[in-house]
Amino acid sequence: MSAVVTQLVRRLTVPAVAASLMKEELCLALAAVAQLRPSLSTATGGGTSASPLSTETLARRSLRLLPRCTPQEVRMIANGAHALEWFSSPSLLVTEALARTLYRHTVNAGQSAIEAKSAATHKVRLGDILAVVQLASEAQRYFDATIFLLATQHAVKVGAQSTSMSAAVAEEFVAVICGYAGEADGAAAVERLAALLEASPTFASNSPGLAVLKACMRDRPLKVADKWAVSYARWAQRRRSILEHVRTTGDAAAPTDAAEGVARTPIQLLKARYDAWQVVLALLAEEEEVSDHRLQRALEAAGVCHIQDPVTLSTLDRTVALRVASSTLPNAVLISYENRVYAQAHYYPQALAALKQRDADTSSAVAGASAVASFSSQPTAEALQRVPVIRRVYKDTVAGAVVAEKDLFQITTVIDMSSADEVAMAACVFARVKEVPTSLLILLPRQLMSLTVEGVVALVRASRHDRRGALSTVLQECLRTSAHLQECILSAPTELLVELAEALSRPVSRWTSPSDEMRALEEQVVDMVIAHVLPQAEQMPLSTLLLVMTIGGFHLARTDDLVQAVCNRLADHLVAAVTPPSIILCVEVLAALHSGDSRQERLLDVLGDATAAHFSPLLESTISADASCLAGLVRFATTQVKYGSPEMAAVGTGLVQRVRQGGWDALPPEMLVAAALFALDSSALISSTASLELPHAVVVHLVEAQRLPSMMTVDLAIALVQLMELMPTVDAENAQALVSHVLRVASGLSPVEVARLLALRHRSSTAAATPSVEVEAVHYSTVSRHVLALPPDTFTSLCLVAAQPAFDTVLANLLVDMLPLMADSLSAHQLSQCVFGLGEMADAGQRLSHQVMTEALSDYVVDNIELFTSGRDIAALLHGFAKLQCTKRNLYSVFSTQLLRRPIIATLEFRSISLLFFAFGSARFVNKDLMDILSRTFVVHVDSLAAPDVLMSLRGLSRMNLLNATFYRKVGRRAIELIDEFPLQAQCDLLHAYGAVEEAHPKLAATLSKRIAAAVESLPSVSVATDVLTSLWLMGADMVMDEDIRTIIDYVVQHASQLTGPDIMKLCSIALNQNWKQPQLLHGMAARAIELQEKQQLEPTAARAVLDTLSSQLVFHHAARVHLSQLARTVSKEMVLLSGEEQEQLNLITSH
Questions:
Q1: For the whole model, what pTM was predicted?
Q2: Neighbour-count burial of 314, counting CB atoms closer than 10 A to its CB (0-12 exposed, 13-18 middle, 19+ buried)
Q3: 576 or 444: which leads in pLDDT
Q4: InterPro entries from the entry (predicted)?
């Protein structure tokens, strides 16, 4: 019979049949399946193997029909889903859809003004709710607020409307509700239902179900009917296991593998769902104040985890709407709410309306104030002409600003009324920060012939940022219209053509690969631009010549002639001028040459003569220079150091010689800083000794003689920042003094310069003895708004100091979020350093945004593994990912194979090997061949290891459970030599590493136990002391006679009230194995176990272990036997779980 049913179900799963099922047919089929319980695998061939029965087509058909189903039909689908085990496929989301449909019916049924016919349609029965809740228990959807309310509130209300209740229904209610909601909340729901039934005038008082409910209220721990005992035990165990995972603060990187291996959700996402669920329950209960931070984290979790349960979304929507309406809400918090709400505006209509109303009120207030202030004045041009939102946001995006979700939302609302150029600009904005919407991909091809050069530039920029390659086809079609492009280029200003060349010069995203046809089309467009601009070079004004000169830096094909012509024209202009060029013009030309990567000798000779004439007064014995001359000198020095022209180096060489003559007190600080920069100029003919000594001497003189003005110029501030960056080493105290002076004028610096200054400040703060100068929050905000405009080296420098204690948390997390967007502009070394630096943050991997970043970036580095040819870079990269709690096995597998290549593994150093041990150990990924090679290298050079290398390597190798007696013996000996360099927690970690692999090292164990015992009161918790004892036991230490171990035991006895369940289990294992005679410890463990049991925080296995330990040591503890015996009996016998068919066969056998 079962085989026949299975064949019929298999027939229903055929896509054509499943898609043709009507709602009633599907429900009847699933109801029959729930009754017949077919086997989910069928024998094949000779009956030796089995193929699974896939019913995904039926599940997807159910999802399509669910919105039109009645509550009774929802129950039929839920029962069928349970029989077909759809809960084992989390991607189907059948449980959530069933709960949403049933919740909608409960809400509609509760409305007062509802027709009788509609009331019958929406009538929800208790069995309907129990079927959905039971499926949720199997699917382990414990953190769904809609299902939780269905179980604890709506089931009680529906059950209270009954006139009678059978014992079977009551038993099902108790088992299902308590199994899903937990014993505490479930028992409370049972108690409320019993009270409502007793108070109901229509309910039969002699109903057998009421007696079952009352009996449940009296029994603790909860007893369920035998029919539900196995299922209830399984649900309770799963729920308890998941709650332990999300509540623990331990190894958050481990995946959540619940009982029977059903749940495979990463623990970070599960924690996020749990936290959001807790926030929603707190908001519904209105018993505690939920902080803005917790509410924002809940909104973040709802977006990242794609939470769609209506109770969560409506509760968050209502709460945020009330919060943003408050006039006292801080601006930073308001911006955070805006970004969360606008990102998912369709889920939060009330909050969206509140934000729009707030904006309207603010605009009205500003307009009213402006009207009063300008009553007698004429309106400005800005007031008469408003820049369209798309152009404003596009301009900010090109400038490197971080785009707010509010701006993206506004773009989507006006895109249908925008021009073709604005549509291309919108595509560029979306491509820079996220994926291009489908609506834009559909709209763009229709408007290609309406694009101007400005729109083509935006489209090319969008294609360079497009990480999915969705715009490649659109751009290809655009570039194919050569006649239209030629017409646009002929009518476009030179500035736009330079922007087009700059956009075409950018490499495509590493996420994609360009086609040969696309390259040919782009080269054709470049030829059009050059052919149009080249004849105009003779008539171009000076400013346009400087702009066109930058094309040389784009490294496009066939641009040399254009750059040469522009340089010749510029040199002619300077020679023909009546007056010598100003120093400002000389610096601008030099900067243009640097941007264009051009070295035209004639132009450089002209510039060299002009700058030498300008700065000749500075080389005399008596300095006579005004402020403009000194400002020009500093700007020239900063530009020349970056450009490195030998033709211009003569000026720097003369200045360095003048400064080395002495008399620094009479020299202006600008001249000293410029000389220090020229000394570091690689093109200058200055000895290596002078190039190192002079900058250090200048820095010391400026600080000790207090030569810097209280309010320096911006040019001098930029020069000081560049000087500190170029110097290989700078004394931390002197660096902090210079930074404090520059910070006074930081408000006048560009965002990039502020970012460089912040990196210097935090890089030198760790080594400085004096307290570091405080940085105003506005400087962090400036960098945060323009973080995408940072050069790769500056972005990398910020990532490397993001873990410093004084670094701004908001900016640090923004760096994490922006790293995938900056990845294309970073080299392999820079990307590795960024991940390494961010991995050192205190909360690395704990935030949900960190997991989103590592998920995207790990795929990126795997796809671009050919970039990583240095073992040191790979070690830093993997260590950063490990600290960020990324455990994707594909990442470690691919890079472990890459490391086995001889040219790459030869570049490793000892520090890198210890980082690799730690990374692979954190992920618990083992490549035996690689580990053997690294271990042999490590052991050979063990005497060169530092304390951090010893600790990381031991922890990593032990986490991989690799046995290597030689490694542990020699590294342990090195650890003893460096024992004074290990702090207390590191000493405990060393013991844990050896205990994890049960590797004996008597000398190390004795040394560490003595030191830990001497500082036992400084241990962070009694759990750490318990782990120390466990590790010493596993290392084979003498747990009975050792005085140091006895000291640690005494500490555990004194703090026994703080033991956890796992701690008690470990101590019981030691006591049973070592036959410990520790009556005080045993009594403390028993008392603590009783406390945990009363709080329902003790596992049955722990209760069993406590009783067994007490009896083995002949310790009688009456209270423990009274309170723990019943819980311990649940694991006293082995319980075999049978399938439905096996249980039926067993019943048939035993019934005869």
A1: 0.86
A2: middle
A3: 444
A4: RESC6_dom (IPR058917)
